[in-house]
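Residues and backbone
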Amino acid sequence: MSDELSEKIGYSFRDQRFLKMALTHRSKGGDHNERLEFLGDAVVNFVIAEVLYDQFPKATEGDLSRWRATLVNRDALADLAKEFELGRYLYLGPGELRSGGHERQSILSCAMEAVIGAIYVDGGFAMARAKIIDWYTPLIQSLSSAASHKDPKTLLQEYLQRAHLPLPLYTVESITGEAHQQRFTVSCQVEGIKEKSLGEGTSRRRAEQEAAAAMLKVLTP
């Protein structure tokens, strides 16, 4: 299974112990991943900060901080972990196994940071940096235009204000899943537009952003 995961993340560990440790939750006992998580958190934050600083020389400190927070947070890291199906490879204690810990956002995001920390320890900073940039390139490219520096909800609000229209109405249409892995469906309604747009996400905020993005596509095809 380690070879399978290595292929997905694009890195082959010289010392497989680091990978196993990165995938071991503290509920399993033994050498768990919290120290590697601590290290990975520092590495990914620095690399993303460096990339944003280099690519957006005219951005303010506030902009850079906001963009980094968007790219490096629990949901973003958990989404990255899901791309690699990291949950399949986690070592969890019996309690976490029974409660679906392999799908929990917090566990996935921490494991993703631990994997980054493990790559840093096993292959050095240059390798960890290269992998982070590789994984994050699509998201970083989404910041390439001035307009995309702002989130969809902000862009929609500004569009409606310029058109002298009321602010959009966001409504939670449904919440599914267990408490630790809920999925929200949110609608966005704008005056003068007959149909609502819908968005889904692992948080209400993310679902609202998706709904706003969908509405923007209707308003600005």
The first strand starts at residue 169 and ends at 176.
